[in-house]
Amino acid sequence: MDDHLLVWLTTLDEDRLARVLANRPDAIAAPWPRRLDTLARRLSDNFAVMEVMRGLPLPPLEILQACLVVGERATPDELARFLGVTTAEVLPWLEGLYDQALAWPAPDGRLHLAEAVARWWTAPCGLGEALVSYLDSWTLNAEGLRRISRGLGLSSQGGRRQLMARVTAVLGDAERLADLLREAPDGTVSLLDEFAWDGPVRGVDGNRFVTHGSPEKWAAERGLLYRTQWDIAEMPREVALALRGPDYHAPFTPEPPALGTVPADPAAVDHAMCLAAPHAVDRAAALLENTDKTPLPLLKGGGVGVREVRRVVKETGCAEDEARLLLEVCAVARLLAFDETAGGLIPTKRFDAWRLEDAPARLRALLAAWWRMERSSLRRVSGRYPTVLGDDPAGETVARVRWAVLTTLATLPPDAAYASLPELVQAVHWRAPLLDRELLTECCPAVLAEARLLGLMADDALTDLGRALAALGPSVAGDEQDETVPEVERDPGLVERSVHALAGAQRTALFGTDLTAVVTGPPAAELSSLLDRAADRETKGAASVWRFSSASVRRALDAGYSADSLLEELRAAGTVPQPLAYLVKDVARRHGEVTVTTVGCIIQGSDPGLLAEIAAHRRLARLGLRLLAPTVLAGTAPADRTLAALREAGYAPVPVDDTGEISVRREPASGRLILLPGGRVAELEEPMLSIADPPPDPREHAQRLVRSGPDEHAAGQTWAVIGRLATRLPTAQQSLLGFVVDRGVRALITLSDGLTATISHGELRRGVLDAWCEEAGDYLEFPLAEIASVTSG
């Protein structure tokens, strides 16, 4: 923990502290800190600081680098002088860094940085370490310092500190360094300029550092370069700054680069959104229905092969880009998962619940999954698409590229579209400079293509749906592995836009006497699903056409429809002409002329009278027995249940080996059952997704932290207090409980009344252990005398 940070936090009022907590929700995540010293440790956590820095635009990162270069004398005025701007231009960005707890002012006005900031840049502004780190290194002894002093024409008398001060004064002074370089061998200035502007670390020829008269040897003898390895040399920070000259200023780019735009028609963009959004929901449902019929196998190395993707494309009528994107989105949304029994990807229980939601909710589930997806479906690497659902080495960085691209596009007015891709990449880089530039350039076209397929972009401009999603930012995206409902799905703005995007979906069709159905516009998912079950899709686009045939109608009847129920649903979608009604009824009349039955088991016997008795037995009616022949019974129950029932009824059957494998479909054991089209049953005992806990309230935590006092427990007294009061515990368990207090470790405790709790982050207070309880989601008090056992959590 940084003591300077704690001192600064104690000076903040409630409003300012709430602002810091709002920008750093990681610091108040459960179990939330109870005092400012704990908060300071959370805020200065190296990983958390680096995570915050990854979301910063370019100007605050430039300021942080400048602070590292200026060092201990960094103040707003000194910082502005080094950047070549006024203090007023720097202060707003500094305030933003204060609100992120990445930097804070000391009482004397100097700036302090979080320790992790220095770990991110080893060479801020392209400058090396301070000269003192080289002069005070163990690799340079006192004689080496004297040799450098003599090379600079300085006195070699005095102690190490005196020698270091003299050398630093010369090498950090631009005028004295310029005088020194006038005596340098030819090529020295160009060599040093390369280190000063393109260093500070460069590969060198080690032999030249021991060759008399070479620029490398001359520079090394005077402390201008330091060879850390035989073929690696470095230039100290002060030397590089002196060589860059007094007119040098560190880069500072407070304004984003210009992003060229072209006019866009908001009405046309909105129309394109209303076409693409329902189409995405419709195609996602078609893909999931297809995998329900034919599981999607995975390759040995993971992912779905190209051959299988093309099969799905052919069977569903999707474009290949749509199939690739929606398969990965559905997997992230937990609508599709691998099943060992099926041997491939099949729809999950969540799909049954998802298809019963209204269309806007289905769309939001897909958008939320895409927003947090850690791969790019349409990114081409070496001219080829990656394997669908394969591992992506870029992982979470791809999601960050997606967030940065959409938030950059959201800065454009509604009637403007970006003019060129290179300019867009440049603007995105300003907003997220720590993203890998090559990966950004590679992923940006893929992100735009995916956004168009989902209705988030049209004509190179963001739609209202895209703006609503971009406004949420990355903070609510969630993790790809997160099982909770992301806030994205419940955002009021996105709910409103999704309803509008699907409002134009057609729910009626024009049925022709030529046995076709035409939908003029984007079909609603329900209508598309009905027509896909009873007809074959021929074309899609501005108008979609389906054609009915004997085979397609028979497919619907096989799925559980009767002639009357099918015609009833078709009439709800439009006027059914007489030829279509005749076709449905004619196919239904011949449907079932030949039947194929699946049986659970076969019962055979030599006595026809005995088998007739068993078939008529009332207690065995649940087995679904029927006579196929005088000595053969067929039952619907499996063999083990049939054996048990017959023995319970007083018979003595024996099992025999089957001649073939019997497949029995298990019905849902419990829960609310809903009949879906085609006879499917959805078991909705569990919700589609668990609901995430609401985010912590920064204002509430700020009020509590401002009122909190110092820890009443004296350091070093933990073991004495536990040993005196936790008398039910053996010594080893008392020690473990001490770690819960002193180190915040996790443990499972059992009280004398048998209650158990998983605790951590404990504090001792007046004979009780005040600790975070995971089961309660809050801090609870446990009397030390009542704790009967402690085990590692």
TrEMBL record:
Domain of life: Bacteria
GO MF terms held by the record: helicase activity
Annotated Helicase XPB/Ssl2 N-terminal domain residues: 513-628
Keywords: ATP-binding, Helicase, Hydrolase, Nucleotide-binding
InterPro entries: XPB/Ssl2_N (IPR032830)
Protein name: Helicase-associated domain-containing protein
Gene source species: Sphaerisporangium aureirubrum
